[in-house]
Structures are given as C-alpha cells and as structure tokens.
Amino acid sequence: MPTHTVPSRTVPTCTVPTGTPGTTAPATVGIVGLGYVGLPTALALAESGHHVVGYDIAADRLAAIRSGAVDLLPSDRARLDRRIGTDLLELTTDPAALAAAGTLLVCVPTPVDHHLVPDLGPLRAACATVVAHAVPGQTIVLTSTTYVGSTRDLLVGPLADRGLVVGRDVFVAFSPERIDPGVADHLPERTPRVVGGITPECGRRAAAALLPASAAVHTVSSPEAAEMTKLLENTFRAVNIALANEFAGIARQFDVDVREVVDAAATKPYGFMAFRPGPGVGGHCIPCDPHYLLWQLRSGPVAAPVTEAAMASIATRPHAVVARAREVLAEAGRPVTGARVLVVGVAYKPGVADVRESPALTVIDELRRLGADVAFTDPLVDRLPTANGPLDSRPDPADDDWDLVITHTLHRDADHSWLVTGTADRPAPTVLDAAYGLADAPNRYPL
Known about the structure:
The chain contains twelve helices and 16 strands. It is an alpha/beta fold. It has a nine-stranded mixed sheet, with helices on both faces. It has a five-stranded parallel sheet with strand order 11-10-14-15-16, with helices on one face. A two-stranded antiparallel ribbon has the order 12-13.
C-alpha cells in the first residue's frame, strides 16, 4: 500500500469565480481518457474555445465518439456534433500528441475488483504515459478518484526521476472530477471545481486551466486535501443512502410510506438533505470510491466504522431485493422456481445507459440461480451481460404475463403506465417497487 510524506506548508483556501481577471487557460489542453468524465470535460473545454487533444488507448472508443455512438446528455451530444472533425477537438491514440498541450487532465477510471480492492492499473498506466511524455512548462492535473497521496506517488516522484522538478519545470495538482451523468443541471461549467496544487504556483496554474469549463474554482492547500474532498463527497452520499434504505425497512415495519417521511423531512430548511431509498447503488462512484479510503486505512491505527457499515449495507441491498421478491411471490402462493419475473430498468441510474456496478445485475443473477425465469426491459440498454450469458431487453413487456415485476430504474421518458392501469387485455401486474417510484400502482409492494 502506498505511503508518502506530506510536506508541511500553509496555503490559504480561496474560491475563484468565473470571470476573474488574470486566469486565462492555456490554448491547448490534453485529456487523457475519454470516458464518462474525460469526454464531457473535453467537450466543455472545446466549447470554451480551447484546442483539445483527446487521448485514449482504445481505438474503438475513439471510433464510437467520432460516430456519435456514445452515451451523452443532449447538450453534450450537440457539442460533439459541433466540434467533431474540427480543429478544436483532436482525437488520438498516439501519446506523443500530448506533448503539444499546455495542460494535461488525467481522467481515467478507478474501479475496485471483486474483493473491493482498488484496481489502480488504468491510473498507473495513464500517469506513466503522462510522465513519459511530459515537457517543461506543462501543468498536469489528476482528476480520477483515488487514494490520499496518489498525486505525489504517481506523478511527482516519477517526474522527479525524469529530472523534472514540480513547481519549477512542471506544475502538478489534483482536482477531483465532478461529472454527474444524465443530469443536465450538473454540466461541468455549472459545477465548481476543487484544486490542490503541489505548490501554490501549481494550484494557481491548475485553477486557471480549469476555470473556463467550471462555475468556480476553490483552491485548497494540498493535493491530499483535494483527494480527500472527493472521498468525503461520495462517502457522505454512501452513508446517507444506506441510512435512507434502513429507514425504508423501518417504515415498512410500521406501515408508513417512507417517501412521505422523506418529503416531509425535506421541508426543513436546515440540517437535513433528502436521500431516497432504492434497490442499491451502482455506477462509477459510490460503490467504489469509499473503498479507496477503507483500503488505505487497513494498515493503520485509524478506523472508519461508519463508512464500513454503510458500504456493507449497500453491498447487501440487492440481496434484500431478492429476499423481498421471494416474500411477495410466496404471499401470492407462487414459488420463486419457475416464476416469471420482469426487472424494469437495469441502468444504474435514470437517464443513462451505463450498467456498471448496477444492482440489477446481482438481482437478476440471484433470481435466476433460484430458478426464476427472469427478463428485463430498459429503453436505454439493449443487452445485459449476466452470469448465464447475455439477456436482451424486452421492447413490449406489457404484452406478457408476469408473476412479479420489480422496478429497478425508472427512466423519465419511459412509459410505465401499464404497471398502474394495466392494458386492455391484462390487469396491472404485481409490482415490487424497489425504485420507490410507483405510488399509484394498485398491486404495489414496497421494498
């Protein structure tokens, strides 16, 4: 596990608003990794008039971007249509092209493996590439969520081995990504960024580079402070989602609608932030990021029992969906073996086609292992990998008879009316509302 020493220094924190004089970003920005973070970041910078060099090791990803076959918000898709093929957006698999950029942003995935241990392979490889092609005068900003101290371990030390002194020859900072896929109100330029530089000049240069595609830049005293900021943000969400799920079970015990309780509590103008229960947590952040902190703390004297309990609770949530499905089926006199079960929505959140870490994967695999005949429908996901091979989405699920329908992800533009009113040929089915989104369904069971 990485160890490092943080130099003692004091740098006052500050927030730089959009339009502050003297904060002009370099003309050319290199984006290392064009996934769900890198591509929207690249588009926002290109939209602000910068020449963007987008580098990715996957030629098929670049081909998908050029053809428009990528999952983007409508506004980002319009940006892609405007910029693709122009001088402002250059896509390449050649890392040598990064030398032309005044600023480099590292935006690669940081997943965890099946044992919940951080998989640092992509990040290490990306940082090694950046270091190998770094040139004097560049500003290098790591944005991928990772452990505290990673900026020094993966960039500062290797750059020094090349003879490049950070703060004099090159400038290094950490600025955690804040991309919220599928949410138009959270575009990069509407979202503040946090920046922590190795030196004050590193922080200033990184802030200036990020400002054109940010609502504001808040500077902290070190990259470690910025790294921990991201871990706190997503651990906060994990803990509160686990609490909301716990209260959902408590509310069901007392025959109370947990949605009504959350809505009522949210009327308090201070001291409360609404989190909603659901079938579990998926995606690239909440199921993964807190484990970077827990992993780093394992060899030290400091414990994180609240975080550990929250992550354990989140991990068991899909199994709770399966257990509740068996209860609902049993109440109807139907064993799970041979039961026809439909899962509505398998993406990890509404509005995206992303199934990474989706709880639906566990729910489907476990129900199939128990002998259920499981299908799914999702307008954004055509095919889903499962333990027993791929499943294809059912385009017209209302035309079939189901012993149980489980709501997992309710996309905003999808038609779910048949779950409430039924059809001309069939009554509304029995629904296990794990998404807590069908208040009016006549045969609804809460999770």
